[in-house]
Design brief:
The structure is a single chain. By secondary structure, the chain is mainly alpha-helical. Among the domains are: about 110 residues, no CATH class; about 70 residues, no CATH class. It has four helices and four strands, in the order ααααββββ. The protein has a two-stranded antiparallel sheet. Strand 2 and strand 3 form a beta hairpin. Helix 1 packs parallel to helix 2 and helix 3 runs parallel beside helix 4. The longest helix is centred in the middle third of the chain and has 126 residues. The chain is rod-shaped.
Length: about 325
């Protein structure tokens, strides 16, 4: 009987060792470890091992599914906790809560970003979070606030830039108008310069002609000076001759004032003014005689006497008188 008891106890120990080996494999992550099917009432051990194996594989499958969903960006997928019982169910619900705790602020951030996309900068994350999730919340909200400030400043700067652009455009228009006016002024200046150039050329031509005329006038002036000099010399000669004639006339007048005997001699006629010095007499062409008193007496004519020589018509010696004049 003792041998039988020992054998029975040894059988139980061997089964337990095999079951513990399976669970040890489960603990190491080997969910494929198996145990032979036990006979009789020992089959419950097989059922327990298979139940644990099933739950572990189901949890592993759901975990893999959630991991793949997160990797694919499907943050709304969750594991079905209702297929589990007890702590297994609580484990799956905990995994789902973990995902909810991570995804909820992300979803709020996505909603805030959608509002920003629509131009609404007033939306922020309002959930109550802790730790890193609260840091994430504050970061998103601060980003929204700063972005709103930047956009407001940009809007103000845009207004300033717009006003400046209008002023620049107005300045450009004014500059364009001034440029056009300056171009017109330059064109007028160019035209004026052309006219001045033409006037300068004309003045140069006139100056050249004036210079030529001046040279001609200078030549004529030199000729006139020569002629004037000759005229003055001629006038001086005429004046000198006039003095001589005046002296001769005075002499003739003195002779004429003395008694004189005439033979058929017409009276003395004067022609022109007394101061001309021209004296003329009219007598017959032949046998004209006149004699001084005391040298020639009537009836006592001396033909060869110097004082009684007749002076016939002709130019007197040394006198520039005309035909019929008398000189001594």
């Amino acid at each position: 009987m003792a041998a039988g008891v020992n054998k029975m106890v040894d059988g139980h120990i061997q089964v337990k060792k095999k079951a513990m080996a399976v669970f040890e494999s489960f603990g190491k992550g080997d969910f494929g470890a198996d145990i032979e099917k036990l006979p009789g009432k020992k089959a419950f051990i097989n059922n327990a091992i298979e139940a644990v194996r099933h739950n572990l594989k189901a949890i592993t499958a759901d975990t893999d599914m959630l991991i793949q969903a997160v990797a694919d960006g499907a943050l709304d997928k969750r594991a079905n906790a209702n297929q589990f019982q007890g702590d297994w169910k609580q484990m799956i619900e905990g995994i789902n809560r973990i995902l909810d705790g991570i995804v909820q602020p992300v979803n709020e951030a996505i909603q805030v970003l959608k509002e920003i996309e629509q131009g609404n900068l007033t939306q922020t994350i309002n959930g109550d979070y802790k730790g890193h999730l609260d840091d994430f919340k504050q970061t998103v909200n601060n980003t929204v606030t700063k972005l709103s400030d930047v956009i407001n400043q940009t809007a103000q700067a845009s207004q300033v830039v717009s006003q400046g652009s209008q002023e620049v455009a107005q300045g450009a228009m004014d500059l364009s108008q001034r440029v056009q006016e300056q171009a017109a002024a330059i064109e007028e200046t160019s035209s004026t310069m052309e006219e001045m150039t033409s006037s300068v050329k004309n003045n140069a031509q006139h100056a050249k002609k004036a210079s030529e005329v001046a040279h001609t006038v200078q030549g004529q002036s030199n000729s006139g000076s020569t002629v004037m000099k000759q005229t003055i010399e001629a006038m001086n000669a005429i004046q000198e001759s006039s003095h001589k004639i005046s002296d001769i006339v005075t002499l003739i007048d003195g002779i004429a004032s003395k008694p004189t005997c005439w033979h058929s001699t017409p009276p003395l006629k004067r022609h022109g003014p007394v101061n001309t010095g021209v004296v003329s007499r009219s007598w017959p062409a032949k046998s004209v005689h006149w004699h001084k008193i005391g040298r020639c007496r009537q009836g006592n004519h001396q033909p060869n006497h110097r004082e009684c020589l007749p002076h016939r018509s002709g130019y007197a010696t040394g006198l520039g008188v005309g035909r019929g004049s008398v000189g001594h």
